[in-house]
Amino acid sequence: MTQAPANDLSAYWMPFTPNKAFKAAPRLFVAAEGQFYFTADGRKVRDGFSGLWCSGLGHCHPRIAEAIAAQARRLDYSPAFNFATPDAFRLATEIADQFPGALNHVFFTNSGSEAVDTALKMALAYHRARGEGSRTRLIGRINGYHGVGFGGVSVGGMPNNRKAFGPLLPGVDHLPFPYDAKVSGFTRGQPDRDPMAYLAELEALITLHDASTIAAVIVEPMIGSAGVFIPPAGYLARLREITAKHGVLLIFDEVITGFGRLGSPNGATFFGVEPDLCTMAKGVNNAAAPMGAVIASSQIHDTMMDATAFGIEFFHGYTYSAHPLAVAAGLATQAVLREEGVYARAAALAPLFEDLMHGLRDKPHVIDIRNLGLAGGLTLAADPEGPGRRGQALFLAAYEEGLSIRANGDTIAIAPILTSRPEDLEDIFSRLGRAFARLG
Ligand SMILES: Cc1ncc(COP(=O)(O)O)c(C=O)c1O
């Protein structure tokens, strides 16, 4: 067996990364503190994207790091099936306390993708348990991102994530993308547009397939990964009305909107709409260890519990569900969110963030800007040589200016750390301004 040299980059096949380009000019983070990463070649890079939407409290938060270290010494692993730790129940309760209404029961996973597949399976199993096993169809949305499991890719609506992987799950439809830059471009916050412009299709699908065949609709309350697109005012409330009327479950994928991104504990609370299931991950434990979760309504949970007289009620779970290290990080994260009033602080910072985002309007190639809470997205006109080149160029220029942002094709997303001070936001945007200047 050969020992690869420490700087051999060939063995690691990187996710969602242009591997060849990366390995020709790698960006290797070796440490982090607060709002900054430190690279192997001695750079200090401001985190303008909270990791990947996930480290809202900044990096290496001492309380979270200490909680993980102490847990690793006390109890490293406890079997997830037939055993549990007291802290897993504590964290579930703390999460449930932050979701509205009847959303009361938390099932732990290790990622957003697993949370999505879990929620879809819960929806199917719930209908079956209540004698409506014909409800098997799932409805997602164009440009939706629900992770990379087969379930999530099936209901997801990003073409590049789907096209290589065959027919995916059968019986899936997609709602229209609820945003049109031609009418809503450069809107601050939620566009003012008749939600039925985008929801009439749901009624048409229900008529076509009959409600008795449809299990659930899944949407991101705010579209994140596709580039921060905000649904029109009233869209989610109307979606709730239509799904409820037809006995179709509504799932909010809160992987990005959970735990503060909108200056609120979650999108359900922010938009004042109560779905039947929510997925979450990322901010639940500041991404200091892998963790995701699904929260289910009491109706779903109790139906599943009551349907089985003896034994396992839901044949689903992961070896690392409620992993003690992830739970320790989760409890510490939730304590910091609570004690430091992070949701309110993020909400208070949002107007400045909005102004800074929309201050980019006159930068070269910018053709749209959107924002909500501490999430911002902008679209660049595609380079004549092909889509995605300008987005990648701005991403690289930002890195040269010591700033990490996210590019998806020609859309750019900014997601500052939730505990930023105004001067942190200003520094993000001055670095971004210099990055635009490099684009020419
Ligand atoms: C809305 C949404 N759902 C699911 C996922 C997948 O999460 P993970 O990468 O943890 O599997 C993401 C990741 O960005 C997401 O934004």
UniProtKB/TrEMBL annotation:
Ranges that cross the membrane: none
Keyword Signal tagged: no
Listed Pfam families: Aminotran_3
GO MF term (any one): transaminase activity
SUPFAM superfamilies named among the record's database cross-references: PLP-dependent transferases (SSF53383)
Record keywords: Aminotransferase, Pyridoxal phosphate, Transferase
Signal peptide extent: none
Protein family: Belongs to the class-III pyridoxal-phosphate-dependent aminotransferase family.
PANTHER family from the UniProt entry: AMINOTRANSFERASE (PTHR43094), AMINOTRANSFERASE CLASS-III (PTHR43094:SF1)
Protein name (Swiss-Prot/TrEMBL): Adenosylmethionine-8-amino-7-oxononanoate aminotransferase
Natural source organism: Caulobacter vibrioides OR37
